[in-house]
Amino acid sequence: MVEVTLWGALGQLAGGKSKVEVEAKDIRELFRKLAEQYPGFEPWIDRGIAVAIDGTIYRDTWSKKLPEGAEIFLLPRLAGG
Amino acid sequence: MNFDPRFSGRKFASVGTRPIRPDGVDKVTGRARYGADFNMAGQLVGRVLRSPHAHAKILKIDTSKAEKLAGVKAVITAKDLPDLTGGDAAMYDILDNCMARTKALYDGHAVAAVAAIDARTARQALKLIEVEYEILPHVTDVDEAMQHHAPLINDTIFTEGLEEKPVKPSNVTKRSQFGHGDVHQGFGHADFIVERSFKTEQTHQGYIEPHACVASVSSDGTAELWVCTQGHFVYRQHCAQLLGMEASKLRVTSSEIGGGFGGKTHVWAEPVALALSRKAGRPVKLVMTRDEVFRASGPTSATSIDVKIGARKDGTITAAEATLRYSAGPYAGSWAEIGAMTAFACYKLDNVKTVGYEVLVNRPKTAAYRAPSAPMAAFAVESAVDELAKELGMDPVDFRIKNAAQEGTRSSYGPVYGPIGIGPTLEAVKNHPHMKAPLKKNQGRGMACGFWFNFGGQTCVDLNIGMDGSVSLAVGTVDVGGSRASLSLVAAEELGIDYAQLKAVVADTSSLGYNDMTDGSRGTFSSSMATISAARNAIKILRERAAQMWDISVDDVVWEQGHAVAKGDKHGNLGKLSLKEIAAESGKTGGPIAGHSELVADGAGVSFATHICDIEVDPETGSTRVIRYTVVQDAGKAVHPTYVEGQYQGGAAQGIGWALNEEYIYGKDGRLQNAGFLDYRIPVCSDLPMIDTQILEIPNPNHPYGVRGVGETSIVPPLAAIANAVSNAAGVRMTHIPMSPPRILAAIEAERGG
Amino acid sequence: MAGIAVSTTINGDNIEYLCQPDETLLDVLRDRLGLTGAKEGCGTGDCGACSIILDNRLVCSCLVLGAEAEGRRIETVEGMAHGDQLHTLQQKFLEHAALQCGICTPGFLIAAKDLLAKNPDPTEEEIRFGLAGNLCRCTGYDKIVRAVQDAAHVMKGA
User: Fold this and answer.
1) Which residue of B lies nearest to A46 if distances are taken between CA atoms?
2) Which of A72, B588, B685, C17 has its C-alpha lying 20 to 30 A from B174's C-alpha?
3) Based on the structure, what is the number of domains in chain B?
């Protein structure tokens, strides 16, 4: 079980919660479970969500493991110039 | 692929040296081919008709007269680019931006295009196209566009991210919020509070090379596109999707690129050129004029930002809050969101809240510009931080050091930081001789900090070893400022060979797997990771081949300094085999030797910079001179330090232009009034001093060599550093960028009068 | 429209071409003669990317008509190197990394060549004003100025 912190807009889709608990071993499973639990997340996942694991931002590595007790933050998937 | 990206702390032989770039001679002799330097046999000249109105319904387009003009081979409108985006809103916006469908949304919006046998005929044909418009009320100012009575740009937009779904459409596409703690409580503990509003005007990336491409569509459904772009694979995806082609049948070659800075990251002219070529059955060359570049491509957001920061007497910030409004042009974006995430990223804050609003206006679609959105937020925040330091009676550097984020700090955008460089850049600035140099009359010194995320992404590299032992490196990230040199250094480092033994090229889309664009400071970060991985894969094969040549087990062969070496005592009589010797035998040991890598580079390290500048203000005219400028930035690891310095200097210079001169000026009619380099003045050589640089190297734990991105962060601090310097020189707080002479003079006079 | 026959000298070679009366010299160089070293950054004489030397005078070739080249002497970036021997300025631009994207480089090299021909020992300020007609968006000019200073130093000693 990992605790995931959501940013504002996602929090609203999760019924105003800023943190949710999900049983997931990696980013792929996390997204799948979140989409099951909160169907409103799906378009956001399609558009791109980045996952910060202990401070490092992952945008594409869906195979990245989510270590037990790690700090996990969802962020909008951004691009640069 | 089991590639371990973790930082290994190795000693370097090639990385960190400063050789001449592999594409250098072509660029100093005029031989390098940029977007407009390429031609195809039988090519036509393409030109685009653009809306002169900021906001207008397109009632009718009559192209019949243009079609009849001798020498015209194709005329297209939105009808020739049907909507194939399948509900992908972002792609639909790109399509509509390439060619207006029902409404022209800004002065310069494309409405039709022609292909003709020469430029003169094409120009004549444009004049023969009759467009009937119904002019609609427009809005170009970000604050005005948020008003309830503002003209609606898109009546299907309902603000996203509000607690309750709004009942009426508006120009605000999205509200986003970041932060933690309780700012209300935090301000309650403050002894001093600074609260200010700021504005920044819209600027253009200002690349010297206008957008240019040559498109050739064959009747068998295949096509070629030569184009200046920051990402030819992305352009291929976009164009294929918009034209209903299979991506693999569209071969895109990236030309040398004459600057991009974020402005060559999505398609404008390319789908139009392809559609023209498809219709005409001949290749079409389409080159934008400078006027078109300003009116239709590029620009960054104009912003309006409110900041409030409170601190205790001892200098501890107790709360920080900002509301940020960013113009997005006529299509939705995430520009304010990035501003809201980066605004307070330099600081350790218990209570922080930022709210961003994306705002539609009748201006060109906003494109990324080097650390997009961060410079404006930093301008507002760092100006307020300076003012607060002054109220506290603290040195501005000491005040920032006291509140700087560090490893373990919760960032203002959410996650906790790993090892970061904000503290070290501040310490370096504090000890820099620039901070102690005397100032003359009417001169002021300013400093400011900046943050940028840096990104990685999908990356692919091929490394081929020739039979003569020379190595060709094919990368898929467009080289915008010397990355072929840095990637050659990385390959030389891994293989243990000389830099001169390598030649790096940017491969076309049919020769290499998909690569994300060169954006987000990812070029060297991502492609060096893939290069290291590809080189290690090649070394594995080189060891196998050496083992065959020696007839021993591959487990007994190690790779050391460009040679296969038999390890242990039992093969003590075997000499070393160089890469050259192994390559020469490759035909007999299993064929060509190569290393490939396809990976997602993730974990790019965030980076920080602190800049110092001295400005002289003429109190009679409001004109300014940059007297001295220093950049201190964390590079993680500088692979080719000269080009890292170049990134620092270039970002600073762009920031100087933004801070002091550059702005889009719209008339009441919604038309851009300064669409040229004469009236949109970017810094020239005589405007600037030397720009000193100091490279710090705090390794990124997620890259084998510790590399972070370096391209973007350097444009984040200048707006604020210069505003602080001008404010100190003029004795009045400047809150509106650019600080052009009239604005400075008005501020000085208001202060005198008040 | 009838073409105008022009006879001129480009990088020491006698060249003849036909051009339209409204055609710029830049378009002639690039589109008719294949000399694409000069670039079009603006077409209005503001960026200097199309700089050439016309009878010992630095000009923006986008502001000169092709027909005006009749009987004159043109120098472009393509004529700077002798065989495989780079001009000192070209060499110093490489050594100092005075280019990033490189689109402005031909114009800067030509402008710097003209500057040093007229003022072999310029101060930093003279270099900065001498090159103020050329825009560079990548480098912040620092390394360009240093490259020109170094080249001037070497050329003086030669």
Assistant:
1) B88
2) A72
3) 2
